[in-house]
Amino acid sequence: MRFRQVHLDFHTSEAIPGIGSRFDKQQFQDMLQLGHVDSITIFSKCHHGWAYHPSKANEIHPGLSFDLLGAMIEAAHEINVKTPVYISAGLDEKLALRHPEWLIRSKDDKTNWVPGFLERAGYHQFCLNTPYLDLLIAQVEEVVANYDADGIFLDIVGVRECYCHTCIGAARERGFDPRDKQSMRPIWEATYANYTRRVREAIDAIKPGLPVFHNGGHIRRGRRDLAQMNTHLELESLPTGGWGYDHFPLSARYAQPLGMRFLGMTGKFHTSWGEFGGYKHPNALRYETALSIANGARCSIGDQLHPEGVMDPATYRLIGAAYAEVEAKEAWCEDAVNVADVALLTLESIGAHDKLEEKENRSGHSDAGAVRMLLEGKLLFDVIDTEQHFASYKVIILPDKAVLDESLARKLNDYIAAGGKVLATGSSGLAADGSGFALDLGVEWLGANEFRPDYFRPGFELGSLSNAAFICYSQGQRVALKGGVELGEREDPYFNRDVFHFCSHQHTPSSGKSGGPGMVESAAGIYIAWDVFDDYATKGSLFLKESVLYALNRLLSGRTLHTNLPAQGIVTLQRQERHGRYVNHLLYASPVKRGTSVEVIEDIMPLFDIEVALHIDEPVNEVYLAPERKPLPYEQKDGVVRYTVPKLECHQMVVLAYS
């Protein structure tokens, strides 16, 4: 896997003539070199269903008169650029009109992505439990046999809900009731597993070991079985396309500990896929690619080719501004392992095998709120699932709704018994059978608080705010002390707001009466009685973050890293053991919202005199800025290395070589 990939879309209507008519080998090569590109995913088959090469397994686009795929592979390989090949697996619009019986159907017999054929323009997704799979496998075999592809990228796939006649028939043959969603689950899971198995077998029969990625738009945390159906991972995360700038760090901090090579996929577009004539500011791509390598990922930038086949110079100047910097930094990013004090036990992974959702909620999500706090608090962290080994982390966060089955409760209790600490919030830590807390968090559970919103009065000083009763919008749990020490209390309002009892414009003020403990410390860790991470993701109240950071700093016996980098800055620490060095990544940019939903980065303001203190065991013999290789003054005393970065503009790597 290379560092500087382009993902080149080409979803081109049959109503457009002259396909590839302006393709020029030299111009194609010139643009790749202008963009500092070393790998480009090019297309065999698009969402419209057409092939872009002569085909017996498919049909060549009616507006194309030559082998465009072959010409691109030849041109790219001449200049040492790899060429994974794209095949639209879940969509094939020309075939959808011929075989609508092969499409995914909802319970009310509607298709997806578009509910019908006359409602609006768009594609219709295929069920891979139908004869369509045989056609798709033949298309894959044809590409692998006839072309020097460096990998296969299959798009729009995953475990899908489907009530087509094939899936209903398969369920009934196995004695399942198709009216029961849980009875249908094994059919849908088996459909996807069979598809990935057949793809792997078909490829290995021709070109064993060729890389394959099955793209569903989201790597499901807690479904390692699905992740491992790929040879590598590509984390689709276009900040301007609805994902936002918080999404990639959450996905990457889960992907890296899995031990699979992975890349971060953003786009050159102002919005998202399918946009012609939309461009980001170069600083946005500089930041997004730096964010990828700072989290142990390689990089991919999405582009879309014009139907006539000419590569856009403006796009590749834009990409080149980012990839020239990545190219200079690659040596300090290969085979790196993240250093983490804290682990977020992702809520998505708990009961993951009982969930069917392919895409996570991109706003108002407990995992996202927790990651935002950790980034702003400059804590080193991983995002983990229930299969991860817990022992290497000083603190494990159980966010908001992490209700525990017997197996997970036993694993966490063993971790606590060995000296580990937990930070649990909301209903986290409760036993799945409703019997109360499965962990000894120093409290007894009395039930969900009947008042919402209610108030938290910390028993400690916050970093930026004076002491007060702070509004908690999220659901709270009512608890009583049971051996723990209260760090803050709940205050209930006079009453809940309804049509007969209301006060002011929003909610009733605090009554000043204690509603019991709100934050409690015990030998096991700290418990906070609200869904604070979901609250922070949706409301962003400062006291929530400062309360959580206060708790984490109490629980950590010693943080690996301290810095004065501002809240919007991002810091990671990666270790390259083979080279005997740590690499401290520092990033800073401030996304702003344009329009109703698009987050953009335009101006990147330089920061000066960023102080860093690292607690590491190894004796450091050199500290320098990379890729400049400029020596940086430092001191190491009592296991702490201290240095000051004179200037940070977008991204800076600090290398600590040890003996």
Q: Main beta sheet, described?
A: 9 strands, mixed
What value does the average pLDDT take?
A: 95
DSSP helical segment count? 14
CATH architectural designation of the largest domain: Alpha-Beta Barrel
* Shape descriptor: globular
* Overall radius of gyration: 27 Å
Structural class based on helices, strands and sheet pairing = alpha/beta
Number of domains: 3
**CATH class category label of the largest domain:** Alpha Beta
Strand order of the largest sheet: 11-10-12-13-20-19-18-15-16
By CATH, the superfamily of the largest domain comes out as Glycosidases
- Give the strand tally: 31
Question: Would you kindly provide a written description of the structure presented here, covering whatever features stand out?
Answer:
The chain is α/β, with parallel strands linked by helices and 659 residues long. It has three domains: 253 residues, Glycosidases (TIM Barrel); 161 residues, Class I glutamine amidotransferase (GATase) domain (Rossmann fold), CATH 3.40.50; 98 residues, Sandwich (Immunoglobulin-like), CATH 2.60.40. Helix content is 25%, strand content 26%. The protein contains 14 helices and 31 strands. Strands 11-10-12-13-20-19-18-15-16 form a nine-stranded mixed sheet. The longest helix is centred in the N-terminal third of the chain and has 24 residues. The chain starts with a strand and ends with a strand. The model has no long low-confidence stretch (mean pLDDT 95).
